[in-house]
Give the backbone structure.
Amino acid sequence: MAKKQKLELTWIGKDKRPKLEPRILLEDPDKSYYAKHRVTENDIFDNRLIFGDNLLALKALEQEFTGKVKCIYIDPPYNTGNAFENYDDGIEHSIWLSLMRDRLESLRRLLSDDGFFCCQIDDGEGAYLKVLLDEIFGRSNYLTTFYVQVRYGHKTLAEDNDYQKVIEQCFIYAKDRNLAKANKDKEPYKIEKFEWMIIEKSDGEELELGGKKVVLFKPGEYEIKKIEPSLTGLKETWATGSLVRQSGSSGEFLDKYLAPRKKIDGLSCLYKVYGIGEDGLGYRYMTGPKKSTATKGKFYSGIPLKTLSAIKEGKADKAKPIQNFFDLAGSFGNCRHEGGVDFRGGKKPEKLLELILKHFSKPGDLVLDSFGGSGTTSAVAHKMGRKWITVELREQAYTHIVPRLMRVIDGDDKSGVSENYEWKGGGGFRYYRLAPSLLEKDKWGNWVINKEYNAAMLAEALCKLEGFTYTPSETVWWQHGHSTEQDFIYVTTQNLSVSQLQALAEEVGEGRSLLVLCSAFRGISAAKATERWPNLTIKKIPKVVLSRCEWGRDDYSLNVQNLPMLEPEPEQPAVPKKKSKKKTAPGQVALFGEEEQ
């Protein structure tokens, strides 16, 4: 049976995926920071700032945070081409797409079912990124694109530029659009448009159209009168655009059944359609076309019953659709020193992140930014009462983000959105770094456990690799973690004897199971051990994990400036010769798994 084809973006090396090592995170208490006292009862302290490669960091977070992040905002490198001057163009875009794909898939796993994903980009890779996002999140989960003006048109970056970029895009996706509900701005419900009343001057002519009772009034048999706006007034609406495409709506009924009747009933007729509307009247008035060339009409509706009840109680608010264009040129121009850190090239204003978090998260929700930059996302999330996780690879994690957040926590940051939320400080964060790779090669080229790992680090790392939650017991020495209430894991670098295993099996007892990871065991084969102690599963380390991951690799970053250059093409000889197969450029084998011909 032929493989079903699908619409997708393809590129060199798309099928090559890294085997990521799920690293553990190590806290650096000297860089963690907390307020000296609570400012409010809602202060949040368990935020996380992670220093290290963001792809490895995302993998490290998956076990604990899969399905728990409500809003993700990322501002990845835009792949402007500046770092790729000496590289083949196809290789350039393939590298960027592969590295983005791996991150996006991990980010989607971390997102909650009702969560939102927001990605800032410019038009350099925007079109490719949109197709890639459609593939990963599903095209049906695309919600909208925010178009953001980031600079004024008259502020030219370079006089020799042919075009001036003033707009960036932010693609907005849902994990599941049926569950993800954005927070719309609200305004008091206004009744000034409910300023019409309709007077019937005859009994009209009864019809049946579209399975509904309809009363026809011809010109002279009715009057449409403008009145003072009131709770009993009607609102006049043209049946055009999306109103006629909405299934079961007044607009659809008018367009489908009434507008075509102008040759039968004549022009300027009024129709009273029963069984339509949410205003409690039980009917809705609609008018047919007034001119022979016209195809549209109007309908008249009262205030919906639920809204009417809320108005009478003084609780009525009207939700406004979220617009998709924002002029933030002024904010981008003035954000250079926000948070007390000067960060040139790509710094985002707090107003932009306020807009994102306002619509796609609520206080107490978890927000993630895996391209931390100068720390704008975490600073705004903190001020808005969201929990946050921020990842940053470069040194600005501690040169920019840490001091910025310290000012936020101390209440000394009065910039950005601080005034909007009457920010006075509070809360805190833990600073983490990625642990080194679990395995390293010894001087003979053999993979061994990294000497930087102590017993606790080893146990936590192997728990993560085996899918166990690391919860070392204070009373049971062999319980380093669990997968269920009766399934445990024990990690040791000892060489276990038969007597030790026998004692361990007896202590575990019936009704419980234990995965034992040890350097070696002697005096019995693995098959015999399983037969003798059915409640134990014994595996050797590091052999049990050797094939799982790419060990010893610390950098999956989007910084490709250190890649080897493409070899120059050899000059063609003057006399034609037999062509030789072209060799793969240095770097391509490692990146894409291609072999030299």
User: Anything to note?
Assistant: The chain is about 25% helix and 25% strand. Residues 83-89, 560-566, 575-597 have pLDDT under 50 and may be disordered. The longest strand covers residues 111-121. Residues 89-110 form the longest helix (22 residues).
